[in-house]
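Alpha/beta fold hydrolase
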Amino acid sequence: MAPIKNIVLVHGGFVDGSGWQGVYDHLSADGYQLAVVQNPTLSLAGDIAATRQVLDTLDGPAVLVGHSYGGAVITEAGNHPNVAALAYIAAFAPDKGESVSTLIADPPPGAPVPPILPPQDGFLFLDRARFAAAFAADVPEQQAAFMADSHVPWGVEALEGAVSEPAWQTKPAWYLVATDDRMIPPPAQRAMSERAGATVSETPGSHAVYVSRPAVVAAVIAQAAQGANGQP
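Structure:
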């Protein structure tokens, strides 16, 4: 099997693809070819389509990576023939018929509640004053403030989109649990990763671990690329 050199990065809700820059820099320095999907986060179907458009352009197998809601996107888009492995970074990993909405509907007692404001015209926003503490507690203060002030409206339709064919049922998966996450509780991350049969790593980190600890995230993605190729 040819070495896997393609990496496709899919961002989650409230952010855009620019947050992947640190991970991009680490992996490109190691010789990987990267593409960052700028999924609109208006609907799950639309984000899957945007991801598939990128996958269509590849000249070989890829690791498809999703952060947060991006995990729901890659769970369906990962059925694309160019996807050799999945990598979930503090991400949702829905089963058939599940959506982000169903996965967050019944939080465990004592779990932190993300500061999501009531929907406005079909979109969700985070409380900017609480964004840093909830989403990016270990990101430098100025950068976290910028993330809060530039955060992207997240379509309610995207949260409600259900997965029909989970790619992790047929393709190998890796999962990085962020143990200080206050958006997706770490126990929920562990449960989803176990259900998906993923190879699991854990690291201290906020929900924005891909921004705050890019080297750790890049290492997990590289492990996926090597593991899917049969390398130790």
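The chain has one domain: 6-228.
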